[in-house]
């Protein structure tokens, strides 16, 4: 097998490897975004019911002076607390999914530089012979 054919085959294998790595990283990133989207949906759902409970609290506060609205207020605060925790967990998931390591472009550049170095060494050996 000639040197050029070997070089072409190696470059092709390196590029395919980098593409496969990038695909795997994108799949992992998509999974993390999916989890974060579910958590944000849960936060929005609970936030909606928290808002509805606050409205019920206002209605009860006007209708009755003290007891029932206090219970509604406690429930609303608990729902908002849960929604806040879900939103913080979702933010952490999004931040973690935003990082792709190693960078596929840098990997391809590094592979090309290694192949070039090998080509220079092979060329230098042929000249020396």
Give a structural overview:
With 129 residues, the chain is mainly α. 91% of the residues lie in helices and 0% in strands. The protein is built from three helices and no strands. The protein has helices spanning 3-63, 67-97, 104-128. Helix 1 packs antiparallel against helix 2 and helix 1 (3-63) packs antiparallel against helix 3 (104-128). The mean pLDDT is 80.
Radius of gyration over C-alpha positions, nearest whole angstrom: 29 Å
The rough form would be described as rod-shaped
Report strand %: under 5%
Please write the string of helix (H) and strand (E) elements.
HHH
Structural category is mainly alpha
Mean pLDDT: 80
> Treating each run of at least 4 consecutive H or I residues as one helix, how many helices?
3
How is the quaternary structure best described?
single chain
Give the total of beta strands: 0
Main sheet overview:
none
> Residue share in helices?
over 70%
Distance from first to last alpha carbon: 19 Å
Low-confidence stretches: none
Short description, anyone?
The protein contains three helices and no strands.
């Amino acid at each position: 097998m000639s040197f050029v054919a070997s070089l072409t085959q190696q470059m092709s294998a390196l590029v395919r490897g980098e593409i496969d790595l990038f695909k795997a990283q994108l799949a992992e990133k998509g999974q993390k975004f999916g989890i974060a989207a579910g958590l944000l949906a849960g936060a929005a759902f609970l936030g909606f019911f928290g808002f509805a409970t606050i409205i019920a609290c206002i209605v009860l506060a006007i209708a009755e002076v003290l007891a029932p609205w206090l219970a509604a207020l406690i429930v609303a605060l608990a729902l908002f607390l849960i929604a806040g925790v879900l939103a913080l967990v979702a933010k952490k998931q999004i931040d973690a999914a935003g990082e792709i390591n190693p960078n596929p472009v840098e990997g391809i550049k590094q592979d090309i530089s290694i192949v070039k170095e090998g080509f220079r060494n092979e060329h230098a050996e042929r000249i020396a012979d």
